[in-house]
Amino acid sequence: TGKTFTHDEL
Amino acid sequence: MNVFRLLGDMSHLLAILILLLKMWKTRSCAGISGKTQILFALVFTTRYLDLFSSFISIYNTTMKLFFIASSYFTIFLMYSKFKATYDSNHDSFRMEFLVVPVGGLAFLVNHEFLPLEILWTFSIYLESVAILPQLFMVSKTGEAETITSHYLFALGSYRLLYIFNWVYRYYFDGFFDLIAVVAGCVQTILYCDFFYLYITKVLKGKKLSLPA
């Protein structure tokens, strides 16, 4: 799993 | 954005509107778990802290604002305006049994050990079990109003649609978030027996009643 800091989902 | 995620968000929005409509029309919150609504407010508060720090889109920001505002408004209705109709005897699930383990897990299993990231992880884990007090209450009362079962169906469908969204994003965007997917599957699995009852009973015009 890559870096997912900016969570763009609600 | 893809059709599954949009349908999921609309289903979530519909669920919230159904709940508010039910309480406003019947002037009552009978059969609704206030604890689940408190947990949802906590979920939105801890997940949307980046509301002002990172801008994704107008849609994203307005939906976040609406979810936060509606969750607190629901709590206001339940614990203040329609307090007399709140069934606290049947809403007896211990929230701390959910918040404490989920809080510990968020510290141990996350994408990065940063405050915002841990709070986001906490919110994802908490959302997957936040419906338990409501399902517990329905099982204790043995039945649910038809409008309440529509609310639960829309709410359960939202995360099921998000699972399709994650499959789509995995194959088309190469996006994959293990924490969100695992929690989303747990959340959806918790609705399975309700989905069964809803489809076999409510859609046939019967009232949702659990086998005693």
From TrEMBL, chain B:
<dbReference type="GO" id="GO:0016192">
    <property type="term" value="P:vesicle-mediated transport"/>
</dbReference>
<comment type="similarity">
    <text>Belongs to the ERD2 family.</text>
</comment>
<dbReference type="Pfam" id="PF00810">
    <property type="entry name" value="ER_lumen_recept"/>
</dbReference>
<keyword id="KW-0675">Receptor</keyword>
<feature type="transmembrane region" description="Helical">
    <location>
        <begin position="174"/>
        <end position="199"/>
    </location>
</feature>
<dbReference type="GO" id="GO:0005789">
    <property type="term" value="C:endoplasmic reticulum membrane"/>
</dbReference>
<dbReference type="GO" id="GO:0046923">
    <property type="term" value="F:ER retention sequence binding"/>
</dbReference>
<protein>
    <recommendedName>
        <fullName>ER lumen protein-retaining receptor</fullName>
    </recommendedName>
</protein>
<keyword id="KW-0256">Endoplasmic reticulum</keyword>
<keyword id="KW-0472">Membrane</keyword>
<keyword id="KW-1133">Transmembrane helix</keyword>
<keyword id="KW-0812">Transmembrane</keyword>
<keyword id="KW-0653">Protein transport</keyword>
<feature type="transmembrane region" description="Helical">
    <location>
        <begin position="119"/>
        <end position="138"/>
    </location>
</feature>
<dbReference type="GO" id="GO:0006621">
    <property type="term" value="P:protein retention in ER lumen"/>
</dbReference>
<feature type="transmembrane region" description="Helical">
    <location>
        <begin position="65"/>
        <end position="82"/>
    </location>
</feature>
<dbReference type="InterPro" id="IPR000133">
    <property type="entry name" value="ER_ret_rcpt"/>
</dbReference>
<keyword id="KW-0813">Transport</keyword>
<keyword id="KW-0931">ER-Golgi transport</keyword>
<dbReference type="GO" id="GO:0015031">
    <property type="term" value="P:protein transport"/>
</dbReference>
<feature type="transmembrane region" description="Helical">
    <location>
        <begin position="150"/>
        <end position="168"/>
    </location>
</feature>
